[in-house]
Amino acid sequence: VQLQASGGGLVQAGDSLRLSCATSERTFRGYSVAWFRQAPGKEREFVAAIRWNARNTHYADSLKGRFTVSRDNTENTVYLQMNSLKSDDTAVYYCAASATVILSNLRVPSAYGFWGQGTLVTVSS
User: Fold this and answer.
1) CB under 8 Å to 42, separation ≥6 — which residues?
2) How far apart are CA 24 and CA 67, in angstroms?
3) Lowest-pLDDT range, 13-17, 51-55, 96-100, 105-109?
4) Where are the alpha helices (DSSP H) in 1-125?
């Protein structure tokens, strides 16, 4: 499964961005997808995840209320809507997919076998 993350850019604090994670994989609707981010000098951290059926979403506690993950299985795309961006949100954002990840491992990077190339989000204060 090849994933293409896009939508990053340079924004000001308080702005919004929507990231996209797209694939041509026809069975994408059977994959759970997560977003992770990695800031300079820091470890990769979980942002949000959406199960294959779109009925369950999960968020890092610190991001609840500002970030929303969704998917359009007809377009084979998962989105991450980011609102009220802060300078601390500056990072490379990665999407990852797995057809076999279990609920308890949704926040674990090693549980995902397929990764996009990352898209840079820079928030200026």
Assistant:
1) 91
2) 25
3) 51-55
4) none
Interacting residues of 96 by C-beta distance below 8 A, sequence separation 6+:
3, 33, 34, 35, 36, 109, 112, 114, 115, 116
Percent helix / strand / coil, the chain, rounded to 5: 10, 45, 40
The per-residue pLDDT for range 70-84, each reduced to its tens digit, is 999 899 999 999 999
The answer to whether residues 34 and 46 touch, using CB atoms and an 8 Å cutoff, is: yes
What is the Cα–Cα distance from 51 to 61, expressed in whole angstroms? 17
* Residue bearing tokens 């702005």: 15
Q: Is the pLDDT of residue 16 over 90?
A: yes
Q: What is the dihedral of CA 13, 45, 70, 78, to 10 degrees?
A: 100
